[in-house]
């Protein structure tokens, strides 16, 4: 009798304990779901706000006209910023893709070298470098040396940001290529560089393209280094040797200006920029869908 | 490529000078190249037996050498870039280094008119906003990471969708966050958080001062949103690296899902998660445009969340092109140097922590 009460007491306690534990489990799960929702909300809100606030200024003319000196004149546009952005990013890609891919090949194919470790570490440091500090660097070595802010300086600053990203993704995608591919090629008497260019690069090119596109998307929206190098401009784009406008600079200048019309245009430019950047990102995701290695030639 | 062993290089203990390291690396590289070629060179007989592809051994050798030099050159470029970057930062800040010395970091006056420069308000602003960002952003990020790694299956649609959304959040340019922060978030935070807090709890130093919306709190919230992708993605990788046996042991003891997470997964991944958080801190510290647009840009040492502040990155963005005399420029370059050193320490620390856990898990699985 006595023992039975103790038993039931115990089991009651245990079940109470279990109930409490299940409750804690439930609460924790709800909290985790809450965190997920809190993480999604900002993106949805930002995208919605951009579309809503950009809608009034969006028109064909907005994309093709030039900015006007007065915030109140009609037919203002952002064409110089769109062109400037693309030309500077193009210039940056010309520098960054060969160097980044080259460095990535080195890091992957000669990984056993001590210097590869140094380069890999350096690359990591450079990739995490605050971009504004890269702006200072390019300001000192190019803007001060040439006595002028220019699109070249801006493009070079963007290239410095792109190189480590391209190098890192190249390295990672080439390391995914099975070693047996290299061995098979070398066993046939194919030289190492032919092996790398024909076999390794073509097998890993999916990852390579991904890396380049992501780097382009990243620098498309860079603002801070451009403030110190390309400076911005309200004139039509002519050459990279002059101060050059970019979409990101235009958003910053118009967004922080005191005029409602310019602020509205900043939202318009933000929509254009976000569409470009997200389109690049989504296409990368669609292209790769988790697999980096595509079939060989 | 794990060809180490006989081809591996041992640079040995040499001085830490990067230039010297590069030179040694080159000479060692050339040695190695000669050695490896001697080992691999196809002999004439071999060529006779196995018909070589359309190129001769000589052009292959030459091609090999050119190719190696090219890729090595690209890698050298990366190293040289970093060395040059650090050199230019130190050289560029020599005027302030000479004039203010270490006092630059402890002085709280920043007055371009009287030519007195101190970095303390900016260091304070950077750390304060970053800590706010961590307090808000880390629980959310960990929640997302736990959800993705522990609650839903790795290959499910929802999981893929959620990680794409988090990825897209990382892709939104900083200046767009700034624009949104300035026109949407800042008024919202002011009206729904700051004013009520100020009215009811205004006596606390944390909630002192008239809220305007452009202050430490708004900057911290914007930063929190911006670090969520970094922290949650890396935390998720760290959690996925926790061996299955850890979870199975807890489940077999009758643990609930939360108990499994809380008592066996999280402790195991602790150092890696810490690394992810520190990496998020690194992001927050270096972030420029979004903060510049919402922090109010006033060098202050206030502890109030509602006081406008200034960060290392935003003072550079705001004042660099207005710096009219060399000392001013030098002070801003030294601010950049400070920011770089801060970011470097944070990042190396984080990498070490993450590397430790993901490395050991690779061995175990």
By helix and strand content of chain A, what is the structural category? mainly alpha
Distance between the termini of chain A: 82 Å
Alpha-carbon Rg of chain B, integer? 27 Å
| Whole-number tally of structural domains of chain B | 2
Number of helices of chain A: 12
Q: Secondary-structure element sequence of chain A?
A: HHHHHHHHHHHH
Number of strands of chain A: 0
Give the topology.
The complex is a heterodimer of chains A (297) and B (365).
Chain A: H1 2-54, H2 60-64, H3 79-109, H4 114-127, H5 131-146, H6 151-175, H7 179-187, H8 192-203, H9 205-220, H10 224-229, H11 247-255, H12 260-288
Chain B: H1 18-40, H2 44-49, H3 57-92, H4 94-100, H5 103-106, E1 110-111, E2 116-117, H6 120-151, H7 157-171, H8 174-201, H9 216-240, H10 244-252, H11 257-286, H12 289-294, H13 312-319, H14 326-364
Antiparallel strand pairs in B: 1-2
Description:
- With 297 residues, chain A is an all-alpha fold.
- Chain A has 12 helices and no strands.
- The longest helix of chain A is centred in the N-terminal third of the chain and has 53 residues, at 2-54.
- The relative contact order of chain A is 0.13.
- Chain B has a two-stranded antiparallel ribbon.
- By secondary structure, chain B is mainly alpha-helical.
- In chain B, strand 1 and strand 2 (116-117) form a beta hairpin.
- In chain B, helix 1 (18-40) packs antiparallel against helix 3 (57-92) and helix 4 crosses helix 14 (326-364).
- The interface between A and B is large, with 103 and 107 residues.
